[in-house]
């Protein structure tokens, strides 16, 4: 009898535990659903403000257009500020997609930035995240999927949240499509610099591409192609001095959160007058611009930043070109 009572007690406790687990799972699912809805609502509101407020987007760009003109400005210490489209013009086309790059070209953006990752079978794919979850209709890690698996996925339209007919592009087709059209920042997020260097060399695009990578990768590229354009990133004054002395680069990336920007720019220009200084408007400055406040973007330019990377390329291009008149 005692054993029977004990068994019934244990069974009751187990059922109760199961009920608690189910309730916790339901609560977690509801929480995730609410968070997703909040994120979707915020995204929809952001896009609504973007398209409603930026009537300037319909204006024609005033700046010089075309790769040759931009390359000339790039090497001119008196040249105007250049605008880089972060992952292409992804406010209007899916990020890191061929249409986002083409859109940037068509609307006079100076530079596009794209991200490179390696697949399981060493295919060079253009995608920012380490997983496909956010930007495609699939799930999984890029490095654990082969070329065919990655190409079977469809990119998501961030504005609508719906699938598109677009695939994750390869680095080769992205470079091929942009050859002779626009400068390209290669944000290298994988350990395959040999293949990336070989591809740029085969397409004869060293004058068009910026290699944004670590020192070991920059050393590899410059050791084989001294004419290549590398873009180091300095995160402190000490690293800035080291990178300028080691590479004497044509362009260097700094973050305004790590520097007194005006002082950093003054030092950079004293080392090389025609060195371009790249900084990001994406994030807080872009968000403020959507709300109608351009002060942060203007401040970067006033402090001497002469390449501005942004998620709002058409808008920032308009600001830059209007002021260049």
Count of separate structural domains: 1
Look at the structure and give the mean pLDDT: 90
Structural class: alpha/beta
Alpha-carbon Rg, integer? 24 Å
The 3D shape can be described as: globular
Fourth-level CATH superfamily: Phosphatidylinositol (PI) phosphodiesterase
Query: How much strand?
Result: 5-15%
Which CATH class applies here?
Alpha Beta
Quickly give the CATH architecture. Answer: Alpha-Beta Barrel
The helix/strand order is HHEHEEHHEHEHEEHEHEHHEH
Distance between the termini: 96 Å
Oligomer: single chain
Number of contiguous helices: 12
Instruction: Could you tell me the CATH topology label.
Output: TIM Barrel
How many strand segments? 10
Low-confidence stretches: none
Helix share bin: 40-55%
How would you sum up the major sheet?
A: 10 strands, mixed
Protein name: GP-PDE domain-containing protein
Domain GP-PDE: 81-320
Pfam family, one: GDPD
GO molecular function: glycerophosphodiester phosphodiesterase activity
Looking at this protein, list some descriptive labels.
325 residues; alpha/beta; TIM Barrel; ten-stranded mixed sheet; 12 helices; 10 strands; 46% helix; globular
